[in-house]
Amino acid sequence: MKELSSEQLDKLLAETNAEFKQRDRPPMQKEELAAGIRLSYQLSWVLLAGAVICAGLLVYVLTQVPWNTYVLYNGRGRTNVHMYLYTLLVAPVGLGIFTGLSRRPKGGTIPYSQRKLSVALVVLIVLFVVGIQIVGAYSYLANGMQ
Prior knowledge:
By secondary structure, this protein is mostly helical. The protein is 65% helix and 5% strand. Strands 1-2 form a two-stranded antiparallel sheet.
């Protein structure tokens, strides 16, 4: 993890406390901000692991079925809409974007009271996205192997 200099940390702390003051929240301490930045960086590894798993599933599906394989979607008033393999790109790209966003120092400005909730939410979101990717990969493999 790239450590922030004391000046950068002080500048970020001043910006964060000014924002908190506008929202009528108590100010954040320097140690609390540093802990939040470390937590944000650690959570980015969870997001990166999910992105790698989803990308691995995508590569596996691409090597096992023809590239023009599609799945029919019959929902929300639509009938027989073709969903092609590129829809499996959404999960790894989305998790990759969130990984990059969580590695910014500004991502660590979560108040202490919300940190446990954010850890649980990140883990649950990654598990949900990986689960959806597994279901999607299975459906493409089932349709492509026929």
